[in-house]
Write a structure and sequence with these properties.
Pfam families: FA_desaturase (PF00487). GO terms for molecular function: oxidoreductase activity. This protein has two domains: 36 residues, no CATH class; 71 residues, no CATH class. It contains seven helices and no strands. The protein is mainly alpha-helical.
């Protein structure tokens, strides 16, 4: 629960809505993201790209969309990984370290 609370404050700081001060937003963002092991600036960069292109089929890289044909053409393993409710527990290191749909959160560009 505390990790979620830290993320929410860091998320708001990343949008510049935690405070009217850009410096205070940056400090709060770094302090809240550090215990989550998510680098603040790269996360804010990729997250703001996600909001810029929210639900756009080809530009929203945070939540990939697949047509029915694309989904059917995927291998069983990949479909299982993408639709597994336990994925957040074992995919966290992948989310942080390996370039995925929205880039690596250490180097998202």
């Amino acid at each position: 629960f505390l990790m979620w609370c830290a993320f929410v404050v860091g998320h708001d700081a990343g949008h510049g809505t935690f405070s009217n001060s850009a410096v205070l937003n940056a400090v709060a963002g770094h302090l809240c993201h550090a215990p989550l092991m998510v680098p603040y600036w790269p996360w804010a960069f990729s997250h703001n790209l996600h909001h810029r292109f929210h639900n756009h089929k080809s530009k929203d890289h945070s939540f990939p969309w697949f047509t029915e044909n694309e989904w059917a053409a995927m291998g069983t393993f990949k479909r299982g990984v993408l639709s597994n409710y336990l994925a957040p527990f074992y995919m966290y290191p992948v989310y942080l370290l390996i370039e995925g749909f929205d880039g690596c959160h250490f180097w998202p560009w």
